[in-house]
Amino acid sequence: MKKLLMWSMMAALSAPLAMPQDKVTVPFRDASRPRKLVVDSLLGSVTVRGYGGQEAIVETTPRAGDGRGRGGGRGGGRGKQTEVPAGMHRIGGNTGGVEITEDNNTINISGGFFSPVDISIQVPTQTSVTVNLVTGRTLTIENISGEVEATNMNGQVNINNVSGSVVAHSMNGKIMVSLNSVMPDKAVSVSTMNGDIDVSLPSAVKANLKLKTDHGGMFTDFDIKVDSTPRPPKVEDRRDKGGPYRVEMGGTTYGTINGGGPEIQFTTFNGNIRIHKK
Amino acid sequence: MTCDEAKILLPEYWSQGLGEAEEIAFEVHLADCEACRTEASRLGSLWKGLALVPAEEPGPQLRGRFYNALSAYRQGLESAARPRWKDKVAAWWPKQPAWQMAASFALLAAGIGIGYGMRGEKPREEVHQLREEVASMRQLVALSLLQQQSASDRLRGVSWAYRAEPSDTEVLSALVSAVKNDSNVNVRLQAVDALHAFAASPMTRQAVVQALPHEKAPIVQVALIDLLVDFKDRDAAGELRKLAATESVDGGVRERAQWAVERLQ
After folding, report:
1. CB pairs under 8 A between A and B
2. Nearest CA in chain B to A36
3. The whole model's pTM is what?
4. pLDDT tens digit string along A8-21?
5. What's the CA gap between A167 and A191, in Å, rounded?
6. HSE of A223 in the Cβ direction (CA atoms, 13 Å)?
7. Contact, A107 vs A38, CB < 8 A?
8. Are β-strands A17-18 and A99-103 bridged in parallel, bridged antiparallel, or unpaired?
9. Domain ranges, ordered by start, for chain A
10. Looking at beta carbons, which residues of chain B come within 8 Å of A151?
11. Could you tell me the residue ranges of all domains in chain B?
12. For the residues of B180-210, what is the DSSP string, one character each?
């Protein structure tokens, strides 16, 4: 019996699983070694939460009739008939084409390429998490102790209750980060083209800050020691050639919190940067 | 023996210092001479009386007193020795504040002079060697971190690259490769920023112009455009114009590219 279980498990791990059901548990091969979760999704939202267990619990919910009109995705009309008719319940069918593999203590989940699907994953708290998401849905990562890498092209990124490091990017979305502690030998970096950056850090955090916003403001309740030798504003006078007179105030602001420490970088083009004390 | 001769021998007789022959002759004379016999007996009683006077012994406290005195003497000697040295120096040191300051400056100047004189060729070589070692250490750290799996580590590699020498082509090519190929937007963004320090190298300019059409993340595109403007690279105007004309590119980026084209004219 034991042997059979092992065989079925190995078979499950060695080949990508097509997902017949909405909830599946995937073990990490070696609980004593560092764990990693990698999620790639095109359509739908992704939520990753740390919990007290040792396995990854993956739940998928096909997104019924995605109102945003992106539902077709690359697969054209294949995402149809996802709405559950009244008085019935789902027994299978469209799962958004989610695929899960485990290799060398790294669990890879990819999906949402043909129809939108919300993927929710629970992993052991001590797991490094990398998520790449493309749609306008929300990317949430919570209760993780490890390295977090999050990219959501068009939607918001929420990173909450994380200890370790965060590298996050969004093109059009806002990025909210709440860090419990920062690893001394890791860099934290958040960037967004058009969204705001809103970060909460422990009040005792030691950090070297590098901040840049081209068209937004920077706000904080921290006592940040701003580098007193910023680059002077660039002045360009081309009025003699009929050109404009331009003063460029932008540029990067450098500063330290509590005497300095690991590097923390926030870059936004059109958004504001807010740094809160927790 | 006459009475005069006997009187000379008398003290020796009593102190028993006479030879045997002389003693016999002396005693024969005493037996004959009344006057000498009286004299001898008077001196004899005095002599015996002197023998009865006790010899003066040192008192029991004397020993203690002696050693007290000795240690006090030694202490005095020691405590006297120190202030004497200090006094000598103090006597040397001027009492006027102005002279004190002058003396301080003189000492400082002498110190600097001595330091400057001792700075030979060898230490300068060592400093140079040390600097080279630090540079190669920084290069090693930057290069190895830029190869890491974790984006956070690669970002640290970029930070280390800032500390490399501007002539360090290995770090430069690692940064260029990060700008062109790194999967993480933030790493590419920071790597572009780090290239500001390598403005002097034509390799940098070429790489930035090449990276521009391949870059898809608007925020990195903006950083690349700003870098080209910073380099005052007129050869880049063509690529920038193309970017500004591409409809699929982010509006903000196209505006920035247009602005850059104007700046570079």
Report:
1. 79
2. B150
3. 0.66
4. 444 444 444 444 44
5. 8
6. 4
7. yes
8. antiparallel
9. 1-73+91-146
10. 184-185
11. 3-52
12. HH-S-HHHHHHHHHHGGGGTT-HHHHHHHHH
